[in-house]
Design brief:
The complex is a heterodimer. Chain A is of the alpha/beta class. Chain A has helices at 17-25, 39-53, 66-71, 74-88, 99-103, 108-118, 138-153, 173-185, 218-222, 243-251, 264-278, 284-299, 301-304, 315-327, 343-348, 361-371, 383-389, 413-433, 436-446; strands at 9-10, 31-36, 59-61, 92-97, 125-129, 164-167, 190-193, 229-232, 255-257, 308-312, 331-336, 354-356, 375-378, 392-395. Chain B is built from 19 helices and 14 strands. Chain B has a six-stranded mixed β-sheet with strand order 1-12-11-10-13-14. Chain B has a four-stranded parallel β-sheet with strand order 3-2-4-5, with helices on both faces. A four-stranded parallel β-sheet of chain B has the order 7-6-8-9, with helices on both faces. Helices cover 47% and strands 15% of the residues of chain B. The chains are: A alpha/beta, B alpha/beta. Strand 1 of chain A pairs antiparallel with strand 3 of chain B. Chain B: InterPro entries: Nase/OxRdtase_comp1, Nase_comp1_CS, NifE, NifE-like.
Chain lengths: 456, 452
């Protein structure tokens, strides 16, 4: 059983499709999002993203009311596009549907076509993406939206070019900056999508602009179908949602799917893909970084050997973190995700762990009580379990609402993996150091060695 | 100033903005549905219902719909409990595509069965979301059947997101609460004149507790906060109060009116934000008891409390006076209290807006506001940015979504929202509020920001 209840999800470990769609569009240059649905969807999603990134998150809504629901929301959608154009002058408007728009059967493509015929919007692209909240989770919504953005600009094949496509998972802005740095070491041109390195971690400027600088440019996206290869940092997404698969199937762009480069093996496979595609040797500085990581994991292996982790969150992150834990002797006791990525079981092949896709926090909590891990690794939604069970939480993923700086934490590459591993190791060390005098005193002096269950 | 309203504002929005001019009749367009594409800061009907009902600590709150509505509202508010922690869970029927096609009634009934079996709750609230309103699930029927089957209360809350505004959600919640109170078993014959309910407070950061301590000091009995730190049992007893007081009018005045009609309980609006409002409201409570001793005790209590905090407040006032404030909050009553509270600290409000303020509240705001103050209804980031800059505000007070905007604009920010972890109510709250203002307005980081 994946969940404690059959008909209920108690304390969700997933979000809705439009959330994934919003996160994807936030990495597109000069873009705005218009959510076709009731006012709450955009507001809740804005709050959820803004608290994680500490950045203003503007997402417009067509604010469907009862009238719109009964008679159709075409008028709202067209009016919304006009107002967004006037207030934000974006180059791209991503129109995401919601539960409501999908259930009443809104034909957003048709409405947008109609709108385009009547108004002159030659310098604006309107990209419709169908993201019903009940369709799948934010995880699928994210890739599905990137796929739609790419297909919007690549119906015809572009002129073949030497660029590499990099499709990233929902990782931090700092991670994206690191991935760019690594690729640049190979002295190769690339298109990275969605690029939230600046948009969701914008520097303070004297003149604030409502649409942040940065993001993947349309010009770049248009070249993706002519690229030399695609590296997709995903091994769990279904083919129907995969942007890389689209480029491979339709435009014969060779696809390399790698896990998020967290953990030595995962970074290795990312670097290997880059070597294969570019035909270049591993840059010296990366060899050094790898060596430094290897040196460090040897230093800390005994501390890590006492780690017993419950890992949860987005499937791709969970997969990468589990690999990192495995290679360092941290036992993954519970590997959980709210999305339905059952593939993770086949890929991880963990016989002694509880691997549960399509689950909720109530169920994760039950296993935490039962298996007593000494670490939680995941987003801040695990705070509930942390609070109740007193288990330490090492944060990674989205959302992180109870700490600041989530967007500038580095997890990928040899440098990022090591920083993250150090964070895990130090948490274990803190647990060990905290109260060991008292523990040993109680065990051997008071109980005279009688307490057989004593452990870290 | 007028010119700028023209330049920065969508045509549809212009009537929602007023720049105060003395001796001039100035109505503001409010209480309207949000404009498509305007990037309103408002939420939806479901949000309104959840805000009001969720603090009922021992109830099970089931959100009947797809997952998002449940994810984004799981334990995000600062309502505290002295008893059960049930309300901190988020139960969702997590509707999938097949449920949208074939209907979600069976799943909901199954969900209730499972919850009753595992947790045996006394009361379950079932919130409807957007899709449920469209696919036509008969929530009433499912809930009624479950009530019969288990002999507990299963209360449908009609909160489909599109079916109105946050205010309609408040009403749906109030309807659900009053349906609990109609329990004859809990009715007593003779009411105590010193007994009240405290409506429209959600016990954020323990604010109901602070108030209850005051009530005890002055000799008044609170049956329950509604809904802060309430339980089903307490709410059923609420019908026995001699009078009600209402803090957050936007969410709870409707309930007060229904209780007056049904149980003949009169009500009065109060506000415990700021020293003056707190003092006035406490005196008001004392007068409502009609008890001379209580009135005298309250006067003494207020005097003492004011004296206790006078010197510390004076210290903060000296540090904060002269700063200019922009306010953007949910309800009108809160905005009014805030203007007064900033005045107490010697600060001037230059911009003030609300998500769902009512016409009469805007009238009061206009009366309190200085000449040239910008008054906004259901505004958006574009307007906030322009008016904050133009009016030279040093500080914004608002919700979570507005915080990063203030910081990007290089101004201070006060969290005055449902997530707060610091009580801002009553005398203690007034000190916290001043401290919070000082903490942000006088932070040394602004020197670095200004130096660039």
């Amino acid at each position: 059983m994946n969940k404690n209840y059959v008909n209920l999800d108690v304390n969700p470990c997933k979000m809705c499709m439009p959330m994934g769609g919003s996160l994807a569009f936030k990495g597109i240059e000069n873009s705005m999002i218009l959510m076709h649905g009731s006012q709450g969807c955009s507001t809740y999603i804005r709050r959820h993203i803004a608290t994680h990134y500490n950045e203003p998150i503007d997402i417009a809504s067509t604010s469907l009311s009862e009238n719109g629901t009964i008679y159709g929301g075409a008028k709202n959608l067209k009016h919304g596009i006009m107002n967004v154009m006037e207030s934000y002058s974006p180059k791209v408007i991503g129109v995401l549907t919601t539960c409501l728009a999908e259930t009443i059967g809104e034909d957003i493509r048709g409405i947008i076509e109609e709108f385009k015929q009547k108004k002159d919007i030659s310098c604006l692209d309107i990209i419709p993406v169908s993201t019903p909240g009940y369709g799948a989770s934010h995880f699928e919504g994210y890739y599905h939206t990137i796929r739609n953005i790419i297909s919007f600009y690549n119906e015809k094949q572009a002129i073949p070019n030497e660029k590499i496509n990099i499709i990233v998972s929902n990782i931090t802005s700092a991670d994206i900056r690191e991935i760019k740095r690594i690729i640049e070491l190979f002295q190769v041109e690339y298109v990275l999508i969605p690029d939230t390195s600046e948009t969701l971690d914008a520097p303070y400027k004297e003149n604030f602009t409502k649409i942040p600088d940065g993001g993947t440019s349309i010009e770049d996206i248009k070249q993706m179908s002519g690229a030399k290869a695609t590296i997709e940092l995903s091994v769990l997404i279904d083919d129907i949602y995969s942007p890389g698969k689209y480029l491979e199937d339709l435009h014969q762009v060779p696809l390399y799917q790698c896990p998020i480069p967290i953990g030595m093996k995962n970074v290795d496979s990312f670097i290997k893909a880059l070597c294969t595609i570019t035909g270049r040797e591993i840059p010296v500085s990366l060899v050094e970084e790898r060596g430094r990581m290897l040196d460090a994991i040897v230093d800390s292996h005994k501390y890590n050997g006492e780690g017993r982790a419950a890992i949860y969150g987005d499937p791709e992150i969970v997969y990468a973190v589990t690999t990192l834990c495995n290679e360092n002797g941290i036992k993954p006791m519970i590997v959980a995700s709210g999305s339905k990525s059952y593939k993770i079981r086949d890929l991880l092949k963990l016989n002694e762990s509880v691997v549960i896709p399509d689950t909720d926090f109530e169920t994760i909590h039950k296993y935490v009580k039962e298996l007593k891990p000494n670490l939680l690794i995941g987003n801040s939604e695990g705070k509930f379990i942390k609070e109740k069970e007193g288990t330490d939480l090492v944060r990674i993923g989205f959302p992180i609402h109870d700490h600041i700086g989530a967007q500038r934490k580095l997890y990928v590459g040899y440098n990022g993996s090591l920083r993250f591993l150090d964070e895990i190791t130090n948490t274990l060390l803190d647990i060990k150091h905290h109260g060991y005098r008292e523990r040993l005193y109680n065990e051997f002096y008071v109980n005279k060695g009688g307490n057989k269950n004593a452990q870290l | 100033m007028k010119k700028s309203v023209e330049a920065y504002t969508l045509e549809d929005r212009k009537k929602h903005i007023v720049v105060k001019e003395k001796n001039k009749e100035q109505g503001i367009k409010c209480d309207q549905h949000s404009i498509s594409g305007a990037v309103s800061q408002r939420a939806c009907v479901y949000c309104g219902a959840r805000v009001v009902l969720n603090p009922i600590t021992d109830a099970v709150h089931i959100i009947h719909g797809p997952i998002g509505c449940s994810s984004y509202t799981w334990d995000i508010r600062g309502s505290l409990s002295s008893d059960s922690e049930m309300y901190r869970n988020s139960f969702s029927t997590d509707l999938q595509e097949r449920d949208i096609i074939f209907g979600g009634e069976k799943k909901l009934a199954g969900a209730i069965d499972e919850i009753v079996e595992s947790m045996s709750p006394q009361t379950i609230f079932v919130y409807s979301t957007c899709v449920v309103g469209v696919i036509g699930d008969d929530l009433d029927a499912v809930c009624k059947q479950a009530e019969k089957k288990y002999n507990i209360r299963v209360i449908p809350v009609k909160s489909s997101g599109f079916a109105g505004s946050k205010k309609d959600g408040y009403q749906a919640a109030c309807n659900a609460i009053i349906s609990l109170m109609d329990d004859k078993e809990y009715k007593i014959d003779i009411k105590d004149h010193r007994t009240l309910n405290y409506l429209g407070d959600f016990n954020l950061a323990g604010e109901v507790w602070i108030l209850n301590n005051y009530f005890k000091e002055i000799g008044v009995n609170m049956i329950t906060g509604v809904t802060g730190d309430s339980t089903i049992e307490k709410l059923k007893k609420a019908q026995n109060a001699s009078f009600n007081i209402v803090q957050c009018a936007g969410s709870s005045i409707y309930l007060a009116k229904m209780m007056e009609e049904r149980f003949k309980i009169p009500y009065e609006q109060v506000s415990f934000f700021g020293i003056q409002d707190t003092a006035n409201s406490l005196l008001n409570v004392a007068r409502l008891t009609g008890d001379k001793k209580i009135i005298r005790d309250t006067e003494v209590f207020i005097k003492q409390k004011k004296a206790d905090i006078a010197s510390i407040l004076q210290k903060y006032k000296e540090k904060c006076a002269g700063k200019k404030v922009a306010i953007y909050v949910g309800g009108g009553f809160k905005a009014i209290s805030l203007i007064k509270q900033f005045n107490e600290l010697g600060m001037t409000t230059v911009m003030v807006g609300t998500q769902t303020g009512r016409q009469e509240e805007y009238d009061t705001i206009k009366e309190l506001a200085e000449e040239g103050t910008v008054i906004l209804d259901d505004t958006n980031p574009t307007e906030l940015q322009k008016f904050i800059k133009e009016k030279g505000a040093d500080l914004l007070v608002g919700g979570v979504k507005e915080r990063p905007l203030a910081y990007k604009l290089g101004i201070a920010f006060i969290d005055h929202n449902h997530e707060r972890k610091l009580p801002l109510l009553g005398f203690e709250g007034a000190v916290n509020f001043a401290k919070e203002v000082d903490l942000t307005v006088n932070s040394p980081v602004w020197n670095l920001v200004r130096e660039g």
